[in-house]
Amino acid sequence: MLAHGSAAAASRLSVCIDTASVTASRDQALAEQVAAKEGVALDVAHFDSSDDDDGVTLKEFKKLLATRCDLVLGYPVDVSAGFAMPDIMQTKAYDQTGFVLVVPAGSPAKNLADLPKGTKVAVTFETAPNLYFLSHPSLTPDVHTTDGDTLKAVADGSVAAAMVWQPTVRSYMAAAPAAKLSVYPLQEPHARYDVVALYTARGADEAKRFNDVLESLSPAGFDHAAVHKQSSSGFDRGMIRRENSGGFDPAMVYRTAVTAGSDALPALYTDSQAAAGAAKFAANCQVCHGAQLQGLVGPALKGPNFASVKSAFAVSDIFMIVSQNMPASNPGSLAKDDYVQIMAFLLQQNGYPAGGIALTYDGATNSNVPLVYHGQ
Ligand code: HEC
Fold this sequence. Notes:
About 35% of the residues lie in helices and about 15% in strands.
């Protein structure tokens, strides 16, 4: 027989669901199924992430988890960047989402490599897919300000393909049912997201039961069957989050990580590296990017327009551009150490602290630390 305490603790499943999420009803169905499996009552607390232009911050998640529920459903986690929110943990993934390739129905192209040289591909300003042109230099970016415009470009035939955040494709198709589009997952960095529930130490027991039920549902249960199977309209299962105002902002993942860490940004380089990098920047980069990194021929390399939360750069993304494409006049021409020191200087200029451990070439190449401007 169960002791009274644990029986009481297990007598309810308490979840928060984002009413602005396109999968709110699916999250609800999952919660009902898990509660039924556990044999407990279900409490659902609703919140609305669209109330907040900046997305839901770490502090708000903590508040939800401290006062309203044990689990927040429907949170997307960048598979290649991992999960970094202090004191908040994630359950097993119960769905997948991410950035997708959208082509007109009937197009033979299923991924970027299938597109002929010179193909124009629509993307939304300051989203991760802008980076994919670096590894696919034969494609031509066609940049739009909203996901709606990006999708419209492919729907009306002015471009052969588009790359957007998957959940917005679903809402676009719902609004424009005449558009015949096929959707495929992108095999690129920061394209794949797992959908998980979040919890704190307080909800650890509930999270464990939730995970156990997810296991028991797999593979024939609620989600796993549906998630991994692509429907006829393509990869459209993992609809999550906001469908209004151009869709859920995937950078929220970074924003929360960054909000969490702003008191204690990681120290990734040493002072002497940054000092050496300043001189090498002046010699090799300043002519195009400006002495204050303000941008001349090349774009600004510090400040909110460079490393914005929305652009969702990781240190490795910037380092890849720097070490492989720069200086634009002679790409890859500097020594590895020079690039590392210049990267240290860029981190310093964007508000990251120096520390006792030197940045290395491999470290910079592999660092998933979000690069977001922290200066004033
Ligand atoms: C001859 C001019 C020129 C020089 C020299 C040059 N760059 Fe660039 N850089 C550009 C241009 C133009 C772009 C934008 C187009 C592109 O991405 O190719 C750019 C883009 C970048 C970006 C991407 C910025 C973003 O927001 O996407 C970074 C980072 C960068 N440069 C760093 C450097 C560094 C570091 C050096 C020195 C090692 C350097 N650049 C030297 C012209 C230059």
